[in-house]
Amino acid sequence: MDIHFETIGIIRSCFKEKFGIPRQAGLVPAATATLELLPPYNQAEAFTGLEGFSHLWLLFLFHGNDRQSWKATVRPPRLGGNTRLGVFATRSPFRPNPIGLSAVELERIEQQSGKIILHLKGVDLLDGTPIIDIKPYLPYADAIATAKGGFAAEAPKGHLTVNFLPEPEQTCLTLEQGDYPDLRQLIVETLRNDPRPAYYQQRPQKNSFGMKLFDFDLRWEQDGDSITVTELHRSDR
Amino acid sequence: MDIHFETIGIIRSCFKEKFGIPRQAGLVPAATATLELLPPYNQAEAFTGLEGFSHLWLLFLFHGNDRQSWKATVRPPRLGGNTRLGVFATRSPFRPNPIGLSAVELERIEQQSGKIILHLKGVDLLDGTPIIDIKPYLPYADAIATAKGGFAAEAPKGHLTVNFLPEPEQTCLTLEQGDYPDLRQLIVETLRNDPRPAYYQQRPQKNSFGMKLFDFDLRWEQDGDSITVTELHRSDR
Q1: With an 8 Å Cβ cutoff, is B86 touching chain A?
Q2: Interface contact A19, partner B, CB < 8 A
Q3: pLDDT band, residue A69 (cuts 50/70/90)
Q4: What ipTM goes with this model?
Q5: Which of B144, B146, B148, B151 to mutate to test the interface with A (most CBs of A within 10 A)?
Q6: What homologous superfamily does CATH list for B9-150?
C-alpha cells in the first residue's frame, strides 16, 4: 500500500542527534522545541481552538533511522538491553511503519507574517523531525487513569545526580543570560535519566560521553549514579 | 513525500458503516472488535510483553472517507455543528494525512494455527479499518492527569435514555443467548451518546434513524432526550 503523506511541519529542537534524546515525551520538561508549519498548512484558521488545549499529540516520522528493516523483537533500554520483547509491545523507533507518537505540552501559538509556529515543551524529538499530524489531547479519552503499563509501568527513575565542573558551570550561567535561559535545567533533566545505551551499563570501563545540545558540545563523565559535566562549548562541527 | 506504509492488520468490528460509530475510543465500552494481524506481522514474538499492558494505541487509516481533500476548518458535532474550529484542534477524520489514533482496551491475545488476533474493547473503529501501527499505552507518558481539554474538556454526557419496543427487546434477548452476549448493552451505550449528525439537532421533524450493527439493521426513534429502539433484525443487504 503506497500512501501519499504530506509533511505538514518540521520540528526545531535542542536535540541534534539521537543520543541523549529522552525516551518518551514529558520526561524532560525543559526540552523545548518549535514546530513550524509548512504551506499550505500555515493558516491561522487551521489552529482555531487549539489554544484551549494544554497538550497535543504529534504524529511524526522516525526520519533519522538508517535501518530500513524491522525485527519482530527489540531489547528495550528499560530492561537493561538484555531482554527481548515484541516490537509492538514497545515504542521502539524500529518498527514496520516508522511513525512516532508524542504527547507534548503546547506553550503558545505564534503567528507572524504568514508563519504559524507552535511552541512546545517536554519534547523527545530530533531536530528536523517531519510532522505528519497534530491532534488535540482529549483528557476524557486519552488520560486513562486505570491503565496498566506492563514492563514500563513507572516512569524511569531519573535518579542520577548531576554536577558541573567550574568551567562548564560558568559557560552555562553565561549562556543563560542570553538565548538559553533554562540550559542548566535542560542538561540536568536530560542527563539524570541516564541517556546511555543500555549495553553501556555492562561496560563500566567506559565512563565518558558526549552529545550535541543546540549547537553546543556537551561532555560528561559517569561514575555509578553520579554524573559530572566536564565540557560545554560551541560546536565547531 | 511518498512513503510506503504497510497495513499490518485489519479490524473486524460491530460498526459496519460510519453512522453510529462512537466519536472517541472508550465511550462505548461494550464495543468489541478483533484485530487480525496480516503476514509477516502475525508472529507471536512480535507481541511478547504486550499482554502486560491493559491498553494500546492503534494508528489507523480513515479508509471510509470518500472526500480526498482537507479543509482548514471543520464543525465539530460537540459544538452542535454550528462553530468552525481548526482541523488540527479536532479529531475530525477529514485531515491532511488521514491517520486516526485510538486508545483501546486489550482484552486478550489469541494465537491459533499461525494467526495472531487481538481482542479489543471500547473501539471507535469501522469494520475493515487498516491498522498501520500498534504501540503500548504508557501510563507515565500518556495519562496526563493535568491536561486541559479545550472545547472537549469533558466526555460527552451520554444522557439519552434508551428503551426498546417489545419485539426488538425479544430479538435482543434471543441473540444474547447466542453469539452476541452483550448486544443490549452495546445498543444502549451506542445510542445514549446521540449518534445523530449535529445538524439533525436543528431538524426536529426527522426523528427516525437506522444503523447497521454486526449484520443487523437497528432502527430507533428519538423524541427529545428519549430514544426508543423500534427494529432489530438481520440485514438482508
Answers
A1: yes
A2: no
A3: confident
A4: 0.94
A5: B144
A6: YaeB-like (2.40.30.70)
